[in-house]
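Hello K.,

You asked for the raw outputs rather than the summary table, so here they are, unedited. I folded two proteins back to back in the same session to keep the settings identical. This is the first:
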Amino acid sequence: MGSKEATGIGMDEASTVVIGIGNILFKDEGVGIYAAKYLEENYHFSPAVDIIDGGTLGFKLMTYYQSYEKVVILDTVSIKDKPGSVYNLPAESLMGLGSYRRTAHEVEVVEMLEICSMLDSMAEVNIIGIVPEDIECVDISLTETIRKNFGHLIDETVRELERSGVEASPKDGRTLEEIVRAYNSPTMETLNP
């Protein structure tokens, strides 16, 4: 299983996809990208799970909502709560949560859910997100609060996948620090070891 680019390649290979959403240039806003990469490098999944670096895909997410049975989106959630709090929000509850829409990609995620909910077929979608501390500072990094709570985000994602019938087995991979460092000075070797 390798990370797929957000092009639709590999959609027939798995019925479940994990999509990391965010912008790594704005500190904690990149946590979804780092979490997807962490899962890819530190777990084996059976049956296979596609893992996508979705960046700030927005409207292109519609393809995934219709092509997979299960979609897990990893992102920040702009909910008035303590930074570092982790939420697992099914699509239905997210659509009614106006305060979630703080960044451009958060708005697009919800808008695509609302549009797809009116179509004949849509995946079961969960957004697993963490309340950010800083999404304004231009810095390819994470705040200490998000670093301390990153494990909770990963654990909740693994639990959600297991509830959907996917077995997750840990493997030796890279630490969060190594992944963030690789995004800070990207080379083909550091991003795709």
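The second followed immediately with the same parameters:
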Amino acid sequence: MITPDTKDWTWVLQRPCADCGLDTPSVVREDVAAMVRVNAAAWVARLAELPEERLRRRPRPEIWSDLEYACHVRDVFRLFDVRLNLMLTQDGPLFANWDQDGTAVAERYDSQDPAVVAVELADAAEQLAASFEVVSGEQWQRTGDRTDGARFTVESFARYLIHDPVHHLYDVTGIVV
């Protein structure tokens, strides 16, 4: 049983992450697209290199397997692309709450095919990277809000986003960026 993560991770916008090593505040917004692609390539390689049994094994019952993390990262890329496009096309959109743990159960992350997940993750990353590449000028200051009250500009949203897949890659590899 996974204990839901209720931590407010927006603190990564203020200081480096002591766990994964990413200095999110210093991330250059225009670099996020390339960072998404690099991160996705590392996930795709991991899904291809490790035996399926290893990908499905949880290190502890309360910690996701590599495959479950990869599914989550894929869905983060998809969700953030939707939210980015809302921020670029609507004034101050409110993002619906996303229950990541509920999604993991409902979508059966633990039983998905690693090869399919790899393709879907790469596609989702490419779509998100392409969406960030067309952001320019004043668009970086457009806003969007989460239902918990967190407000993002497209710029802070980009920095907040990139921490998630980087941190989860650290979760499964232990390699600090």
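The chain has six helices and three strands.

Happy to rerun anything if the numbers look odd on your end.

Regards,
P.
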